[in-house]
């Protein structure tokens, strides 16, 4: 049933957030430390385990895949509810600090990635190689 | 008649948000295909439209939640809020190969620490450049350049003025919004096309909403890798900024 997939996703999220919360408390910070990341790892392991035993029927999968496919629309809704006005009215200090942080962060990506080895191969081009990668990606996801 | 439609849409706000976002996506993908010949990704255009709408909404209402402060669009706040966003981010991990994450794991952790440090230093340098001399003010603004959550948490811990805290939130917002736009534009240049660089990117930039939207606009398949590291970033920032990093700033100024 579809709800099994959704419930599995919700369960992983809750367990991950609880662990992240406990980690935060142990370190004495008022924040969730990596709860979402822990939930992602949980989902990878649990679905991998179930799949190996043939216990992940298509209907269950579709409960997870629906939320996976809703990701971009949710991000668009998120963008539309950002406090963009405040970001631009914050003054020059805020703008320069933000811009510099992004510029340095982006510039360091190739430095840390290093030379491309086997493990830094681009993702396989999607089936329809004639299309530019960006467009083919969306068709993958939809 | 008008009133009853408004109150209906207000009552079913989440449903209205689905419709509004669906329409935005349609327009964005249409523009992508017909105006940019697919060079600019449809989801990148959709995110930019979202940001523009958020700006318009924020200016017209004076609120802090962009377009979702407009009564008709209040559902956007729920749809794009932390709860559903995190659920969808976790769902993107489905089908990810753990091997990829393990291989990039150490670099991801290095990227996390380096990312917090570099953003903090960038913010601190700018704050000093603009004439701030109080270590608390410098630390708070610098923490804002980490993320817009680290800034106010740090400021509150250190007892910064509300003016400086507002500034730190603004710095974090600029970072987040700029990441959404600059990531797809620079992806090719910085080699952001594989799981390893996506994990490093997530660790270096860290602002969850920026990373989430930036990767979505670049290649949605990279989202889980970047989100995986980015999710530890804010926590690490809150851990380091008011403690070790503040002590370092105080030692210097």
UniProtKB/TrEMBL annotation, chain A:
Transmembrane segments: 30-50, 62-80, 86-112
Disordered: annotated span: 116-142
Biased composition (Low complexity): 126-142
UniProtKB keywords: Membrane, Transmembrane, Transmembrane helix
Pfam families for this protein: MadL
Protein name: Malonate transporter subunit MadL
Organism: Salinicola endophyticus
Gene responsible for this protein: madL
From TrEMBL, chain B:
Name this polypeptide is given: Malonate transporter subunit MadM
Malonate/sodium symporter MadM subunit N-terminal domain segment(s): 6-253
Protein origin, superkingdom: Bacteria
Alphabetic keyword roster: Membrane, Transmembrane, Transmembrane helix
UniProt keyword Membrane present: yes
Ranges annotated as spanning the membrane: 12-31, 43-60, 72-96, 108-132, 138-158, 165-186, 198-218, 230-252
InterPro entries the record matches: Mal/Na_symporter_MadM, Mal/Na_symporter_MadM_N
């Amino acid at each position: 049933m579809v709800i099994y997939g959704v419930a599995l996703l919700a369960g992983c999220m809750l367990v991950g957030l609880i662990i992240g919360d406990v980690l935060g408390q142990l370190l004495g910070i008022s924040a969730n430390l990596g709860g979402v990341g822990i939930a992602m790892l949980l989902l990878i392991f649990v679905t991998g385990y179930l799949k190996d035993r043939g216990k992940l029927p298509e209907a269950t999968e579709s409960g997870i895949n629906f939320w996976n496919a809703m990701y971009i629309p949710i991000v668009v809704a998120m963008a539309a509810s950002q406090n963009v006005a405040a970001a631009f009215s914050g003054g020059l200090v805020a703008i320069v600090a933000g811009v510099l942080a992004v510029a340095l962060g982006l510039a360091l990506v190739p430095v840390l990635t290093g030379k491309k080895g086997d493990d830094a191969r681009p993702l396989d081009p999607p089936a329809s190689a004639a299309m530019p990668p960006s467009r083919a990606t969306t068709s993958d996801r939809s | 008649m008008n009133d009853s439609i408004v109150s209906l849409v207000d009552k079913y706000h989440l449903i209205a948000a689905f419709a509004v976002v669906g329409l935005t996506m349609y327009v964005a993908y249409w523009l992508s295909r017909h105006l940019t010949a697919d060079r600019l990704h449809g989801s990148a255009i959709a995110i930019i439209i979202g940001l523009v709408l958020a700006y318009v909404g924020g200016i017209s209402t004076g609120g802090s939640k962009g377009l979702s402060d407009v009564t008709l669009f209040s559902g956007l706040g729920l749809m794009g809020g932390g709860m559903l966003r995190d659920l969808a981010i976790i769902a993107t991990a489905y089908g990810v190969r753990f091997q990829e994450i393990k291989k990039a794991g150490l670099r991801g952790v290095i990227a996390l620490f380096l990312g917090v440090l570099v953003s903090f230093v960038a913010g601190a340098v700018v704050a000093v450049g603009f004439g701030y001399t109080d270590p608390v003010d410098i630390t708070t603004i610098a923490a804002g350049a980490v993320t817009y959550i680290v800034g106010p948490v740090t400021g509150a811990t250190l007892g910064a003025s509300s003016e400086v805290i507002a500034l730190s939130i603004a710095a974090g917002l600029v970072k987040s919004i700029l990441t959404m736009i600059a990531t797809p534009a620079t992806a090719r240049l910085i080699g952001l096309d594989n799981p390893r660089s996506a994990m490093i990117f997530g660790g270096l930039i860290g602002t969850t909403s920026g990373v989430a939207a930036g990767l979505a606009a670049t290649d949605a398949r990279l989202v889980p890798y970047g989100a995986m590291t980015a999710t530890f970033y804010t926590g690490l920032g809150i851990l380091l900024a008011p403690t070790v990093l503040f002590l370092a700033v105080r030692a210097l100024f």
